[in-house]
Amino acid sequence: MVRSIYDYPAIFRRVHMEEPGEIEAETAFMGDIWRRHLARPVRKLLDIGCGDSPHGRMLIDGGIDVVGIDSSPIMIAAGRALSGGRIRFYRRGFERFRIPEGNFDAAILMSETFPVMYTNAALIGHLRSVGRTLRRGGIYCVDIDRHSGVEIVRRRRKLWRERTVRIGDIKVDVREFNRPITWDAGLHSIYQLECRIKFPDGRAVTTNDRIPVRYLVPPTLELAAGASGCFDLVASYADLSMTKPMRRCYGRWWGVMRRR
Predict the structure, then answer these.
(1) N vs C: which end of the chain shows fewer Cβ within 10 Å?
(2) Domain count within the chain
(3) Could you tell me if 104 and 132 lie in one domain?
(4) How far, in Å, CA of 96 to CA of 73, rounded?
(5) Which of 99, 92, 101, 96 is nearest to 126 (CA)?
(6) 17: pLDDT confidence band, cut at 50, 70 and 90?
(7) Structural domain of residue 172, as residue ranges?
(8) pLDDT grade, residue 173 (50/70/90)?
(9) Tens of pLDDT along 55-83?
């Protein structure tokens, strides 16, 4: 069986180049968005594609009731342990889902995960699933990588980058590839991540993940939000800034959608 880097909660965030303090900065920025776009405090939050819910673990300390959904039982188990059972988790995929809870004030999908829904059916189905869980006027925030600068690969996978990551005594050799796509696919890239994890006891595990990424910019997110019948795109923010122009976005941007 091919293993995934997401089977290793203590490793995958470092492989994805998460910086120290990044989760704290994102969580603080979410608070700024909620204060600007919500008329009431967030008391109940849905964390979608949450993994072990690092944002949720910070927010429960502020008194917010957090519910997480993720498809990985390994990530959910880690999240339950790290939160001391204070976050309720449901094992669900996020393209289409139902959970036995609702009336959420806000929802989030972080880690630039939103564009992996690359078909129209998946994207609209997802937005309608989220819409069912939110109060009217509730806010749904997603973060999206700035889509530019990727060379289109047509015939075979092409090595993009090689690097080594260390997590304590664990060494991870990382190879990243771009896979072929066709001009009419509506994709930004097909990203392949291969990791060779070398543990201190001599064990070695190879993981392989292939991730299609849809091309998304604010106008296409606005179109999808409206097409779902559930949301309106009310704001876009660049690089964790409330004032930076979108045309100057360097790394990623946030889409803020309001439940109709």
Answers:
(1) N
(2) 2
(3) yes
(4) 18
(5) 96
(6) confident
(7) 158-213
(8) very high
(9) 999 999 999 999 999 999 999 999 999 99
Q: Are 172 and 197 in contact (CB under 8 A)?
A: yes
Between CA 138 and CA 120 the distance in angstroms is 23
Would 152 be classed as within a structural domain?
A: no
Q: Which residue has the tokens 């109709």?
A: 260
Q: What is the domain-level CATH number for residue 58?
A: 3.40.50.150
pLDDT digits (tens, 9 = 90+) for 210-250: 999 999 999 999 999 999 999 999 999 999 999 999 999 99
Order of strands across the sheet with 134-145?
Answer: 88-91, 65-70, 44-48, 104-109, 134-145, 252-259, 231-238
If asked whether residues 111 and 189 sit together in one domain, one would say no
Q: Which amino acid is at 53?
A: S
Give the chain's end-to-end CA distance (angstroms, integer). Answer: 44
Contact indicator for 191, 211 with CB cutoff of 8 Å? yes
